[in-house]
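Example: Alpha/beta-hydrolase.
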Amino acid sequence: MSILTHHPFKAGYVLAALCFEFARLPLYILKYVVPYGRPHPAWTYKQALTMRFVSFFVHCSATVQAKTPLPLLPGAEKDQFVTIDPAPSTAYKGPLAPTPSTKPVRIGGTWYPAPLHASTSDTEKNESTAVVVLHLHGGAYVTGDGRTQASGFFSKLQLKHGGATHVFCPQYRLSTLPASATSNAFPAALQDTLTAYLYLIRTLHIAPRNIILSGDSAGANAALALLRYIAEYGAEIQHNGVELPNPSAAWLWSPWLAPAESADPAWTRTNPHYATDYLSFVFSAWGANAYAGPGGLSVLDSPYVGFKGRPFRTIVPLWMSAGGVEVLYFDITQFAEDMRDKGNDVTLDVERHAPHDVGLVGNLCGFEREAVGMVKRAGEWYRGVRK
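Written out as structure tokens, the predicted fold is:
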């Protein structure tokens, strides 16, 4: 573990990095005036400059392994924030089965615009007009949460343009380094993902046909894991005589499909799109190694983590979104083809000049218009498959 993740070295590194970046800033200001001086000539001046800032922040925060606190208190979200108890342990089977070090726990989550409550009975649920997006945030399993500062921009887009009446963003456990029995490695985040899904269908009685499963980056990895889990274990997880149902559709935004490859910094640095993305090789390696945990990188070979080259069958229609100049573009386009070959209903949408996961950071790096366009198209697609 790097000494830069501990004080006072952490603070010293951040200060030195900021000074160095600001010293170079005038050079970028001048360089980006000319379109062909930008990382991509189709980007605007604002996009090129703000992408520089976002790239710096991602690299710097990964170098010091900045921690994201996950309190189970409302905070700024007030009434939007709720806490959820885990389902009975029998719901967590196979790769999600409880172990001495990784058990389902109570988690938090944020509702947009306001919470739904368990006021709808089982007999009335099919009459509900609520369409709920269960959105799993990105952040390489090591950063981020579902709260308004991190997930508010994307959630509001899904409400305005995606056809949803509500969005629920669970605060799943994040992995940390050094790896240990308490570092929330795989499958902690997936246990929490299942907890959130069961909360919607069992506690709130939301009809599965009214649920859209959504995830960006690592969140899309978790969404795929949930779909695979339902396909493989759904029949064994019955409630009132009914097996675990599928959601009506899934939105997969810039899915992270091969964390094992990301553990090697060289894989990210040598990617043809590395210069046009903000994903740092340090960030990707941090996430992969932390999610692997004390079991080592072989854990990432699980079909519930590594989806590249491992398509599976699901009855859920899939919308896959990719940025045309992001590092993960090649994996996403190939996986979409592989899933189609398995007989799945897959629609691939590419935002031609966008970097990774602009739904998450579009408001920070000048890609708001692209993010709006992606969600609008996803909403139109959803209305079509739901008929």
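The chain is about 35% helix and 10% strand.
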